[in-house]
Amino acid sequence: THNLPPGLEYLNQLDQIIIHQQVELLEAILGTETSSKYEIKNHLGQRVYFAVEENDCFDRNLCSPIRSFTIRIADNMGREVIRVIRPLRCNSCWFPCFLQELEVQSPPGTTAGYVVQNWDPFLPKFTIQNQSKEDVLKIIGPYATCGCFEDVDFEVKALNEMTTIGKISKYWSGFVNNVFTNTANFGIQVPVDLDVRMKAVMIGACFLIDLMFFENSLDGL
């Protein structure tokens, strides 16, 4: 573990990561988009990290699902251990040359890997890359992400897209929660021996999937 980026040792023994968005009172009551805050927990519900999104009011309210952002992820001592950077890019299969790409840094300033959207006319597809931009894993979502009162799973696959090794799941949280707060609850399941840098990149992929497919939806209604 002495070779791990500082703070990522928490991920070393985890095969399940829970991401829970904290509800902002102003956003819940007025529908005004505020900076997102998240708790990142282990399978026992113990907080491992907390995360805060940084951007400006213009991005949040006018560019919401494709907005640029920086998400700073800190451990329980307040030390920033992961930084997720998303530039403003297209979110449409009609612009295959300018699709989503997200960088994950750990420690901040040092690239751990990337999440790159792949063009596909029917399915949400992404490639997980390492710090050298070498392909490592694939993420493939369902044809429809509305959920219909159930969880929505994005499968984590080997590069041949034949073997499933994990998943990123958007949990359906119930009618009241979805309609009035539109809060996000995700679970990440990956092999326990997956490189911790790739686990950090999976957390970044989870934030990207949330904004692209669930930010302005009723998440399953």
Q: Overview of this structure, please?
A:
This protein is of the alpha+beta class and 221 residues long. The protein has one domain. 16% of the residues lie in helices and 35% in strands. The chain has a twelve-stranded antiparallel β-barrel with strand order 1-2-3-4-5-6-7-8-9-10-11-12. A hairpin with a 4-residue loop joins strand 8 and strand 9. The longest helix has 18 residues. The protein is globular, with a radius of gyration of 16 Å. The C terminus is likely disordered.
SSE arrangement:
Elements: E1 16-22, H1 25-30, E2 37-41, E3 47-54, H2 57-62, E4 69-75, E5 80-86, E6 101-105, E7 111-118, E8 125-130, E9 135-140, E10 152-157, E11 164-170, H3 175-180, E12 185-189, H4 196-213
Antiparallel strand pairs: 1-2, 1-12, 2-3, 3-4, 4-5, 5-6, 6-7, 7-8, 8-9, 9-10, 10-11, 11-12
**Total count of strands:** 12
Strand arrangement across the biggest beta sheet: 1-2-3-4-5-6-7-8-9-10-11-12
Proportion in β-strands: 25-35%
How many domains, in number, for the residues? 1
Helix/strand/pairing class, anyone? alpha+beta
Helix content: 10-25%
- Give the topology string: H per helix, E per strand: EHEEHEEEEEEEEHEH
Low-confidence stretches: 174-182, 217-221
Give the C-alpha Rg: 16 Å
Span between termini: 44 Å
The biggest sheet amounts to: 12 strands, antiparallel, barrel
Tally of alpha and pi helices: 4
